[in-house]
Specification:
- It is a single chain.
- The chain has one domain: Alpha-Beta Complex (Homing Intron 3 (I-Ppo) Encoded Endonuclease, Chain A).
- The strands form three sheets. Strands 1-2 form a two-stranded antiparallel sheet.
- The chain has four helices and six strands; from the N terminus they run αββββααββα.
Length: about 140
């Protein structure tokens, strides 16, 4: 495993793999510099105990999870990745893919700036994107 960067927290990993579009503007997008999903979303993988293949995570969803639960920000990366239910038995709200999604207010899918992310019901996010597509055509 030499050559692989070990981070002390998920937050550290996210920050290390992103860069602000404009370093002088704290409100600019923080673009994911690591691997990107086919649709442009930042993506990272991790290995979980007992699983043969790595599991992929979306960077913007992980960032919102940290912001929604700031008391968990400094927990070790292993805790975040290997105990996604935070020992409560309930997944964090923002990670329930069937009813909610994370919307990019800036419309930049590679952005992980938490000020640009908003948790929305899936139907509302879909309707918003359809309105934007109609306006763009």
């Amino acid at each position: 495993m030499s050559g692989l960067r070990r981070y002390t927290s998920l937050f550290e990993r996210l920050l290390a793999n992103s860069a602000p579009v404009d370093p002088d503007n704290p409100n600019s997008c923080w673009l994911w510099t690591g691997h990107r999903h086919a649709k442009g979303y930042g993506q990272f993988s991790e290995r979980r105990p007992g699983r043969r293949n790595p599991t992929s995570q979306l960077a913007h969803r992980a960032m919102l999870a940290i912001v929604e639960a700031p008391d968990l920000m400094d927990l070790s990366l292993d805790f975040w990745l290997h105990d996604p239910y935070y020992s409560t038995g309930n997944p964090p709200r923002e990670l329930r893919p069937d009813d909610e999604t994370v919307d990019h207010l800036c419309l930049v899918s590679a952005c992980i700036n938490p000020d640009h992310l908003q948790l929305l019901p899936r139907a509302e996010n879909t309707a918003r994107m359809q309105r934007l597509r109609r306006c763009a055509s």
